[in-house]
Amino acid sequence: MSSRLALFLAVGLLAVAAAGTVVGVTLATRQDPVQPEVLEGKPPVGDDLTTPAANEIRAAFESWPDGSIDTMQRLGREYPNDPQVQLYRGIALIWAGYPGESGPVLRTAKRAGRDTIWEIRADDLLHPQYFTGYPLYEPVGPDPLLRRGSQLQAQGHQHSAARVFQQAATRTPNDPEALVAAAVARFDKEDPSASFSRLGPLTRRFPESQAVRFYLGLMLAWVGEGDEAVEQFRAAVELGPGTERGRAAASFLERVGAPDAETGAGSGDSTE
Hints:
The chain has helices spanning 3-10, 20-28, 54-62, 68-78, 83-95, 99-112, 117-126, 144-154, 158-171, 176-184, 193-205, 210-222, 226-238, 244-255. By secondary structure, it is an all-alpha fold. The chain has two domains: 20-126, no CATH class; 144-255, Alpha Horseshoe (Serine Threonine Protein Phosphatase 5, Tetratricopeptide repeat). 44% of the residues are buried.
């Protein structure tokens, strides 16, 4: 099983840490019955800030909470279209106990960071009920468009990847791999149906496609639909237990204690 595929499947068991900066905040701001007004400690700052305001952001978070919110609000006004500034402004508001006010700020970060990793990180904070990051399509063949789209997606360029995948789907409209890739790249936590509305019909159009079943299972796991994900992964195993995707699906089933239809193996049993 490739390392990327193994990582994708792990999201069905725990939140994948796509970025250390986002993870701590996401976990701390899940919609628990009791929401703390102020989070303890200092909010984290990632190592990948490239904004001109990077030094000021780091200083504001280092001196937390002394003047930090005022600094971040000022930076937000000075850099209204900078996704990094707006993201960290949203993080500061969450940390200070103002999650309601952070929503519009994070949506600004998402819009300003369109087609970059910053869009995805903002979406993570807006929707902490889902796993971190976006599900990625990994091609199994040599198709150059699918490979290029996969690279773009892995770099956080979700919309560019979607355009490349759609080119592949338009070129080969009866290829389930291209159609699946185009569907996966439409994923948005604000509207998961953008992907599911395309993937679902593919199960009827291509009932023998392992790619369709595998990625539908993956995306269901991503949004917390565990029972439905198990059903799709079982179907993926039946369609080819010895393939990379079949082994990955069987591994998922084993780790969640759900026997697969091919072997009947469950928790503690081998799926190979």
